[in-house]
Amino acid sequence: MAQPLLYAESMIRLLIVLLITACGSHGAGSECRESLDCDEGFDCSGPNDGPVCGIAPREGCFNDGTCSNGQRCNAIADTCSRDGVGSECGAACTSDAQCGPDFRCDLGACIAVLCTAGYTCPSYQRCDPSRITAATPFYDRHHGCFDIPCTTDGNCDQFCVNGICQTAAGTCQTPMQVP
After folding, report:
1. Nearest to 78 by CA among 96, 95, 61
2. pTM for the complete prediction?
3. Where exactly are the structural domains of the chain?
4. CA 74 to CA 79: how far, in whole Å?
């Protein structure tokens, strides 16, 4: 009688291993398209979701009216901003060289070069600077490149991760708290 019982226990263990393998674990490093694909405690992070710096984007001014002492609100490169552009108050510029790469001086303020004027959008974004208006805060006056919304990979040239087209599949990661 002991032998059939051992056989049954072995079969149950094998079935459990097969079920775990078939279902797969979706912990750290697992491929995903959205956070629902990941185990509890993990979020799906796409390669083009934007930077995770651990600090807030540089949004020093909304427009010239939020600067003091005659300073101008300038668009600046900001690696911690979703679109790579932030803002800060500073002296009026007189040349493009004062503004840095991918920015130019326009009537004394540094602004981002638009995708219709020489800046090239990444492959996973679409050029549409018409969506940026005079009322847009300076820190959101970027190069005019916008994410392409999607629901499946079929909506993109590459991968659909977290509702936007991206260059690769996402991975399950522990979320980082950003201020």
Report:
1. 61
2. 0.76
3. 27-179
4. 16
